[in-house]
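ok so for the tutorial part 2 we go from a plain amino acid sequence to predicted structure tokens. step 1 is just haveing the sequence, like this:
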Amino acid sequence: MELQNNDLEQLYAGTFKSISPGMILTGKVVSKKHDAIIVDIGYKSEGFIPIDDFTEDELQELKEGCDIEVLVSSIKDSEGTITLSKSKAKILKTQKRLQRSLEEGTVLEGKIVEKTKGGFFVDISGVKAFLPGSQYDVKQLKSYDDAIGQNCRFKVLKLNNKLNNVIVSRRAVIEEERHKKKSTTLELIKEGEILSGTVKNITDYGVFVDLGEVDGLLHISDISWGRINHPSDYFKVGDVIDVLVLKYEPETEKVTLGYKQKKADPWIDIDARYTEGNTVEGKVVGITDYGAFVELEDGVEGLVHVSELDWSPRPGHPSKYLEIGQEVSAVILKIENAQRRISLGIKQLKPKPWEVVAQKYAVGQKVVGKVRTITDFGVFVGMPEGVDALIHISDISWTKHIKHPSEVFRLKQKVEAIVLSLEPDKKRMLLGIKQMKPDPWVSDIPQRFKVGDNVNCKVLRVTEFGLFVEIEDSVEGLVYASEVVKNGDEDYIEGSSLVATIIKLDFEQRKIGLSMLGLKGK
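step 2 — the prediction. this is what the tokens look like for a chain of 522 residues:
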């Protein structure tokens, strides 16, 4: 519906002594007819509003006796008929408000009702205005559909008298509000002040906090007095937190924030609360290859080095002993205040393995362990108490020559052995495998073999001074080089079989000499 310029000039015109077209009055609904609404406008006068001036929703809400604002459209003195318009009154007032917004920058409320090419249509008190997409927000709108139905605040950018070309901006309102908020925030920012802000973004190096259209950086080093892996361990986007202004540069509006500084540095009087040698309680907060970090209190952590987890000379990975969140007891080994470092030990609360071994084992006792290390001179067997015992290569077999322990053992192999010697003070324990059985050079060989006996042999090694052989799968002997008979046209090799005569028995030296010459019975 269009209004002429004189409508604007006549806004609120007239006096209370007379009624004239163009006046805007407040009346009271007298009755509702099928074709009109009768309104008492004072001055002992009634007027009517055509029924088609209302929407169906407006008619349903309209009740007799309620107040209504109307514009006097026409007066017919001859008939005494006063025609009123509710919609013209509304539009005329809206036009005045739109004009004020354009000239003075006042803010209007409206509802985004429809999507159109390049933007939206907005209903402002019955007037349809155009909202360009670029004027919706300071940041790009992801989906136009999300804006439909929103009640927002706008400023008028362009207007003509016919109200058929009204352009509004929501962005202008947002920018003005942000500018006001930023100005207020900048007045509050002073070094040493505590401000409330909202976590806006989290990075590896810190947290950006929105203080009110001004962003401040909370560096990772200023979040906690203790160790911190990542800012996300402490905050999430949207959290409202109190922060301390550490530094403010007005020229660049750069704000540096602190969080841990709201509390006193716990390391200042650390010596008054902790003493080397004391036992403390804490919670495991970090596990690495080289040890575990234990939180003793907020901002104070100690490191249990992997070597201080267990008395074993080769402790496993710290995760085999501890897990995150576990409550543990530990002994304070060293406090380095300047370096903000506390060294802890857990093994010190356990019995020393060699003390346990001394009480538990004795020479001649049978023990069980697993092969931990294989060397040229023997194998180290891991005992349940966490110590290693040595089986020397010479204590593996009574009768066989062992070139290398790997011929007999493999890693993690379970073995039974006899304790040969035990020296806990020197952290030394010797075991023997062959001692599990009687010495055959004493109990068996003298009875089984005699000088002059012919025996079946298998070649073990070929050397310059003869053939080392295994005699009847039980004991080694040597066929002297001068006593070897050629095997036809071929030389003997490892694994070859032969028959020889015992020509020497030395039980003290544990040696048997053999000859293939003049075999007995041949």
